[in-house]
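Colleagues,

For the teaching module next term, I've prepared a clean inverse folding example: a structure given as tokens, and then the sequence designed for it. I'd like students to try predicting residues themselves before seeing the answer, so please don't circulate the second half yet.
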């Protein structure tokens, strides 16, 4: 964990101007298709990986102070029991930005635990409403309404796998690939939904990065973790982003904000890649 490169393997200018530029980019985002008011980003991952914490962290960046709208914490079972879609607002009580972060139950690795992968497919297609209560044993169904096809604005436009960097060596080796991740990836690929990885808790697996997030792209160990996540999920390395969510902090930090905003900006770029496959007047 202590091996270092002679220069960073991703270039970041750790300046207030970088944070401000990224924040403005995300704040001013609008989908490239006019019939879609907001890009819908689906966060999926194991229990405790940091899905809800990522929403809280992004919301905090735009509120200007630490917030905690979504339930998050170190529970052994998922705290998110419903399908939830969260607005991020421009300041406290401000206008909602042009994207939604969608949260699901954790992917508990038991047959009858965590979100059902059939439910994930229904979410991707836009069928499951906000507030739907998950039942791991019984997936959602359309009650026979097979004729209804949700419009593009109700579908998921980017899927983000949220992966805890501290569990990656044990849980994501080639010899033990969790089936739920693979099934979700396959279904997203069939629907041509772009995929991305959010590697969380990077400060916990690299002591030097824990002391100073500016070290994140100097660390050989973290680079190896990013390549492991890329290899396991079959997602290009350029779509794997390390972040540190706000958990115990009481004040915002420029370095955390830069990593969080860079990841959010990538999600929106991928959503636009998805929209580029559609002709607006066909929707």
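(Answer key — instructors only)
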């Amino acid at each position: 964990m202590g091996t270092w490169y002679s220069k960073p393997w991703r270039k970041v200018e750790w300046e207030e101007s970088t944070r401000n530029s990224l924040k403005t980019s995300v704040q001013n985002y609008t989908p490239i298709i006019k019939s879609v008011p907001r890009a819908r980003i689906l966060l999926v991952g194991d229990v405790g990986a940091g899905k809800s914490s990522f929403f809280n962290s992004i919301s905090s960046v735009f509120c200007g102070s630490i917030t905690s709208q979504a339930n998050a914490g170190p529970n052994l079972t998922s705290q998110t029991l419903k399908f939830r879609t969260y607005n991020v607002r421009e300041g406290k009580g401000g206008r909602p930005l042009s994207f939604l972060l969608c949260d699901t139950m954790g992917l508990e690795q038991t047959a009858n635990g965590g979100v059902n992968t059939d439910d994930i497919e229904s979410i991707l297609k836009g069928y499951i409403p906000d507030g739907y209560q998950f039942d791991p044993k019984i997936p959602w169904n359309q009650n026979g309404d097979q004729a209804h096809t949700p419009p593009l604005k109700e579908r998921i436009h980017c899927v983000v796998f949220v992966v805890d960097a501290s569990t990656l060596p044990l849980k994501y080796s080639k010899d033990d690939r969790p089936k739920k991740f693979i099934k979700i990836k396959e279904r997203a690929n069939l629907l041509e939904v772009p995929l991305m990885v959010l590697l969380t808790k990077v400060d916990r697996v690299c002591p030097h990065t824990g002391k100073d997030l500016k070290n994140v792209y100097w660390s050989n160990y973290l680079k190896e973790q990013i390549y492991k996540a890329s290899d396991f999920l079959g997602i290009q390395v350029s779509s794997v982003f390390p972040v540190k969510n706000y958990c115990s902090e009481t004040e915002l930090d420029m370095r955390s904000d830069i990593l969080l905003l860079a990841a959010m900006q990538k999600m929106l770029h991928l959503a636009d890649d998805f929209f580029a496959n559609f002709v607006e007047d066909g929707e």
